[in-house]
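#lab-general

N.A. 3:47 PM
ok so I finally got the sequence cleaned up, no stray characters, all 148 residues accounted for. can someone with queue access submit it? mine expired

B.Y. 3:52 PM
send it over

N.A. 3:53 PM
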Amino acid sequence: MTKETPFWQNKTLSEMSSNEWAALCDGCAKCCLHKIEDEDNGEIFYTDVACSQLNLNSCRCKNFSKRTALVADCIELTKDKLASLKWLPPSCAYRLLDEGKDLPWWHPLVSGDLNMVHTAGASVKDRCVAEADIFDLDDHIVTWPNEE
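B.Y. 4:20 PM
back already:
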């Protein structure tokens, strides 16, 4: 019996179905952190401040289907927008596959465990604060979302 090649290894991102595209999200929630862009050079700085709609315990959006209406600067990650989203962290499956790389060992599609992203320390779980609890976003710049 031959083992079937996983869809992410034999399809381009643009060839994936909407279900396959959605399955690529590992649930790390790093994209749900506030970012600061340097207006002079375009450099992106990550913070440990989570969007108001992020459930800090589960690392899932509280209102996923309404998120773009509830949060003015929420960006829906689509195939068409992917190339322009330079702020996606290096561990993001969409970014990795777009760069011709494979998924990390802890990704749920590889590990078979939806919680492995948290167990491996690759998510924002227990590492972020709610935006309602902060005063100055600049005081919350962190480097860990850029970990690979």
